[in-house]
Specification:
Distance between the termini: 51 Å
Shape: globular
Oligomer: single chain
Strand order of the largest sheet: 6-9-10-3-11-12
């Protein structure tokens, strides 16, 4: 007798307004397997996951759990062992870690919440995941990566039969990601089905048994993963052959557009940092989590207080005490968390493009017609996929949001762009487009870029020169052929050179 799917969707369709997001999608998932789900931003991945976990109702189609047709809602799904770890964090930050893990499912004893048991059980989950998190810590004090781990722990505290994870590694370090993968393997061994949605094809290849590919709301493939390379998967996602994802590197001019001398931050996070950025250069900053890369950039643009050191823009010493002063000096910053600091999500898309340049458009009144025209120009050149200029920003996919942030920064006329994790949570095609925009602006000497990234292939493929940081200071630099994985990792770890293997 053939094995029965533990979860199955038949003819699943979904609309938001007039937009058809899912079009008659058939998927099936079997026990004890890991499924990698991929697709461009806007392909329908998150929508499908929310339907399969009961948070959305499709306009048509059927869902089967253990062969029985079922109408799901979040409570029914949880009852059946279907748990979703969402892309967007859903934590109560003023509460402690253990309180968040068991929120809504608190163990009781004699009609009262058993706090002691909650702490013990939370500690056991943390131990099994092997992560450095105190169950008594307030969630608001945790890093984004650790908050993501708390979301995962919430899911694992339930009686899970089907675990759906939507971009679970987006904010995790390499070490945290590997620990998560170990947990996924344990879950698989115990017969649990894991549905793993990710833009990181390398991770999908590493962790998944089967592949599900969505494109424009349709399923274009479900089956074995072993026969496909990352490039082939990417081509299935976009429906065409992919050119080399990283543009050809173009040289820069020797002129310094930015010089930092002996920089120290008031909080001690940055110590005696000096570097230069050349005209038309794409300069990478690499390091392990906690190396101080983001803190350095925030010190340069005035978000963090400077205790000593000098900053020169185009050869002139400059004092920068705020983001506004940085922009006046031609420096703009794309933050790691675009939804928190890069965009106003409730605004129409065109308003975000011109948000930083309204004073140039009109000194008294804003002119929507002019704003829309400016947005439309970027919409075409940056391939920002929207229904129109009046679409609300929060409804855009992650990749299109990031291109919108980039349009906002380019609109300022800035010459120095500091970009912190510019493609985190962005699909392969949008990555390709973002890299093209950066490369074209740099090659035409219209702008120079500092790219902070934990993605080594991105750093290697995009940057002309790479600076490596550790413990708040610069520990190395790589140019040309020196920009390769082993060299950068050894510098980041503080290992002077690879150790030769001992001959047996």
């Amino acid at each position: 007798m053939a094995e029965m799917p533990v979860l199955q969707g038949k003819g699943i369709s979904m609309k938001f307004g007039e937009a058809l997001v899912l079009d008659s999608v058939d998927v099936e998932f079997y026990p004890g397997k890991v499924y990698g789900v991929v697709g461009e931003n806007g392909a329908g991945k998150s929508t499908l996951m929310r339907i399969l976990s009961g948070f959305l109702q499709p306009i048509s189609g059927e869902i089967y759990v253990d062969g029985k047709q079922t109408v799901l809602n979040p409570y029914k799904a949880k009852e059946l062992g279907i748990v979703l770890v969402p892309q967007e964090l859903n934590l109560v930050e003023p509460l402690r870690v253990y309180e968040n893990i068991f929120l809504g499912d608190e163990p009781t004893g004699r009609f009262l919440i058993d706090k002691k048991k909650m702490i013990q059980d939370a500690s056991e989950i943390i131990k099994n995941l092997d992560v450095d998190i105190d169950p008594m810590e307030l969630v608001e004090r945790l890093s984004t990566g650790k908050k993501q781990m708390v979301e995962i722990m919430k899911a694992l505290s339930r009686s899970v039969k089907i675990l759906i994870m939507d971009e679970p590694t987006a904010s995790l370090s390499e070490d945290e990601t590997q620990k998560l993968f170990e947990t996924v393997k344990k879950l698989k061994t115990s017969g649990i089905t894991v549905i793993f949605v990710s833009h990181r094809l390398k991770e999908i290849v590493q962790i998944a048994d089967e592949l599900v590919v969505l494109r424009d709301g349709k399923k274009v493939y479900q089956g074995a993963l072993s026969d496909f390379s990352e490039t082939q998967i990417a081509e299935m996602m976009v429906g065409r052959k992919m050119d080399e994802i990283y543009p050809e590197k173009v040289g820069w001019e020797e002129k310094n557009v930015l010089e930092v001398r002996n920089l120290n931050s008031a909080d001690g996070k940055i110590r005696d940092v000096s570097f230069t950025l050349k005209n038309g250069e794409i300069l990478g900053f690499y390091g392990l989590v906690g190396a101080g890369r983001t803190e350095l950039m925030q010190t340069i643009i005035g978000v963090r207080k400077l205790s000593s050191g000098e900053i020169f823009v185009d050869g002139k010493q400059t004092i920068i005490r705020s983001v506004k002063e940085a922009m006046k000096n031609g420096i703009v910053y794309l933050p790691e968390e675009r939804k928190l600091a890069g965009l106003i999500l409730n605004f129409e898309v065109f308003k975000n493009t011109t948000l930083m340049t309204l004073d140039k458009i009109s000194k008294v009144f804003t002119k929507p017609k002019v704003e829309v025209e400016r947005f439309d120009a970027y919409r075409k050149s940056f391939d920002i996929r929207v229904r129109g200029p009046y679409q609300i920003t929060r409804t855009l996919s992650g990749g299109n949001q990031q291109k919108l942030v980039l349009s906002k920064l380019v609109e300022t006329g800035a010459k120095i762009f500091i970009m912190d994790e510019p493609t985190r949570g962005v699909d392969i095609n949008s990555r390709y487009q973002i890299y093209k925009i950066i490369s074209e602006l740099a090659s035409k000497k219209m702008a120079s870029f500092i790219v902070v990234s934990s993605d080594l292939p991105e750093i290697i493929g995009l940057c002309n020169r790479v600076i490596v940081m550790r413990n708040g200071t610069i520990v190395g630099e790589a140019v040309g052929e020196e920009i390769e994985e082993t060299n950068l990792i050894y510098m980041a770890l503080g290992v002077s050179e690879p150790q030769e293997k001992v001959k047996e």
